[in-house]
Design brief:
43% of the residues lie in helices and 18% in strands. The protein is of the alpha/beta class. It has a single domain, classed as Rossmann fold (3-Layer(aba) Sandwich), CATH 3.40.50. The protein has a seven-stranded parallel beta sheet, sandwiched between helices. Helix 3 links the parallel strand 2 and strand 3. The relative contact order is 0.17.
Amino acid sequence: MHGPTELHILERLLEDNEQLASHNQEHFDELGLLAVNLMSAPGAGKTSLIKSTAKLMPADCPIAVIEGDMVGELDVERLREDNIPAYQISTGRACHLDAQMVAQLLHTTKLPDCKILFLENVGNLVCPAEFPLGEHLRIVLLSITEGDDKPIKYPVIFHNCDAVIFTKSDLLPFCKFSLEKAKDAISSLNPAVEFFVVSTISGDGLPQWRNWIVEKANKKISHLHIGL
């Protein structure tokens, strides 16, 4: 049980994060890009999805990545191997990115020209849901290997997302995972959510996901230009 003092500190922390997230989004808007927060449990395939997506991107839709990990730079190095501009945020003991971490990077690092900035969050299905970063879209990855009960166990992250990507779909024949059950559970929490079923091994579903995110980026950038 949390006492009054602990609850007050938590509420203040979340409030401060919300305010700074709004500041970050203004920064993203000034840069004329679409910021996408990618969230999942560890090992769901966020980095692999970004690498595969980058290969399918049209030339007029470059991407960049802010990579969040507690320690190490393995994922950011994997991205740079494919010439994807990637910037590391080491969160230390924090199990998620927060708006302050992103703001510090934005104010100390010049990002390249890009249409889509992926914010690859730390692998965690709990905390990232409570800490917006200033993103325009929130995407949750759910691996086929994790089990179709995750939306029931971790409802908050699925309630507050724009799309769910079921990854490692090539393993569906070998896993007791019901896409229908998972989709029904998520839709009951979030009726407007979009679904994608992809495999970075076979390539299934990647063009549909690519088309959707490019369309979102083009609409966002067109809206920003109209507002100028």
